[in-house]
Design goal:
Blueprint lengths: L8 H8 L11 E5 L2 E4 L4 E4 L2 H4 L8 H13 L10 H14 L3 E5 L2 H19 L5 E5 L8 H6 L3 H4 L9 E4 L4 H7 L4 E6 L2 E2 L5 E2 L2 H14 L2 E5 L23 E4 L10 E5 L19 H16 L2 H22 L3 E7 L2 E6 L4 H10 L2 E2 L1 E4 L2 E4 L7 H19 L1
Parallel strand pairs: 3-15, 5-6, 5-7, 7-10, 10-11
Antiparallel strand pairs: 1-2, 2-3, 4-12, 8-9, 11-12, 13-14, 14-17, 16-17
The protein binds pyridoxal-5'-phosphate (PLP).
């Protein structure tokens, strides 16, 4: 028998990786459905799902088959040429959205960066050079220089000053504040319909409809960041479908690839003002990513995983709410579909996360006092019962 050398990968990371991530002390090596395993063979119920990414869970056969077949056929060509999967995927995404044109990206930040660039060009062409975008407190839009400036957390942006100008921040869910912020420099209003990284805060329906009206009155672009909410996560294919409105421009990523790095910017014909040379990217919309994303999206649609997100999300929401009756540490649940948070009465979210990890449940402390639950869209009520049972145990221990 050959001797096995066990590598301490966590020590290797400490030595080699830039100090960007506060990683949890587990090394994950395998996944299947709603479960992952670490290098010690320990099993975890995964309610992080790659931070709202693994829509079909881990290693879903439809995704594995699609990328395996595509890898044998054609992986990458650049956008100098036409390729088929990106256009097949475009048809589905645009048809679901009722929007007209798409541009693929490699990530959520790039999707939102594309939205911003598109809006600025629109301002140049149609609004006398207006370039300001009204953004919200609590917002998260990514880590490029423009998107991190649009993001509300100064901790993420200040080390990188000087930051690009052109973002005006107003309180989230406050229509009058948005109205007051509109000037002749404004080109658009950008927001998440459920703020994800900001702590899982849904936008009010009246507010969103009011923002749509405000944009229409002033000829502004309504730009939605559906990077975290899109592709079924909140119980409709796109979150905006619950609000009875439509955006002019929208960013997607996360669940779109079910784990593959792909995002997209979708827009109306009128807002699609890029001309050749304005924007581009080497890897985006590659046959491999798009074939995978197409399998993800088709599986979500064929198996009504959007409906599952709605039904099981409501079930999980209620189960989380019930924890309030048993635990003084629990204030309640919030969110939509399977984008949920358990709000605590104290800043103990990280303690809950750490205890849950030890007990075989992955959840994440999205703020000091809120634990986020974003399981794959295939999650069952039984798996939710188990997750809530583990949270119940964690809370009991913390309250002892
Ligand atoms: N927008 C929203 C709403 C997000 O939640 C995120 C990531 O969490 C992003 C943009 C940035 O996406 P990415 O991390 O893929 O760049």
């Amino acid at each position: 028998m050959s001797s096995t050398r066990v590598t301490d990968w966590q020590a290797v990371e400490q030595r080699l990786y830039m100090r960007t991530y506060g990683r949890r002390p587990v090394t994950l090596v395998r996944g299947d459905g709603v479960y992952v395993w670490d290098d010690q063979g320990k099993e975890y119920l995964d309610f992080v799902a790659g931070v709202a990414v693994n829509a079909l869970g881990h290693c879903h056969p439809a995704l594995v088959q699609a990328i395996t077949e595509q890898a044998r056929l054609l992986i990458h060509t650049s956008n100098l040429y036409y390729t088929v999967p990106q256009l097949q995927l475009a048809e589905v995404l645009l048809q679901q959205a009722g929007l007209d044109r798409i541009f693929y990206t490699n990530s959520g930040a790039e999707a939102m960066e594309t939205c911003i660039k598109l809006a600025r060009k629109y301002g140049k062409l149609h609004r006398n050079g207006a370039y300001e975008i009204i953004v919200m407190t609590g917002a998260f839009h990514g880590r490029t220089l423009a998107t991190v400036t649009a993001t509300a957390n100064p901790h993420y942006s200040e080390p990188f000053a000087p930051l690009p100008e052109g973002f005006v921040r107003v309180p989230f869910n406050d229509l009058e504040a948005a109205r007051r912020a509109v000037s002749d420099k404004t080109v658009g209003i950008m927001l998440e319909l459920v703020q994800g990284e900001g702590g899982v805060w849904p936008a009010d329906e009246e507010y969103v409809r009011g923002l749509r009206r405000l944009c229409d009155e002033h000829g502004l672009l309504l730009i939605l960041d559906e990077v975290q909410t899109g592709i079924g996560r909140t119980g409709t294919f796109y979150a905006f479908q619950q609000y009875g409105i439509k955006p002019d421009i929208m960013g997607l990523a996360k669940q779109l690839g079910g784990g593959l790095p792909i995002g997209a910017c979708l827009a109306t014909e009128q807002a699609s003002v890029f001309t050749p040379g304005d924007h581009g990217s080497t890897f985006t919309g590659s046959p491999l990513m798009c074939a995978g994303a197409l399998a993800v999206v088709n599986t979500i649609l064929e198996q009504d995983l959007v409906g599952n997100a709605r039904r099981v999300g409501a079930y999980l929401f209620q189960a989380l709410e019930r924890l309030k009756q048993r635990h003084r540490l629990v204030a309640g649940a919030r969110g939509r579909g399977l984008l949920l948070a358990l709000q605590l009465t104290e800043d103990r979210a990280r303690a809950v996360e750490d205890l849950a990890l030890a007990k075989g449940l992955l959840v994440n402390a999205v703020s000091a006092s809120a634990v986020r639950l974003v399981p794959p869209l295939i999650v069952t009520e039984k798996q939710c019962d188990r997750a809530v049972e583990i949270l119940d145990e964690c809370l009991t221990e913390l309250e002892a």
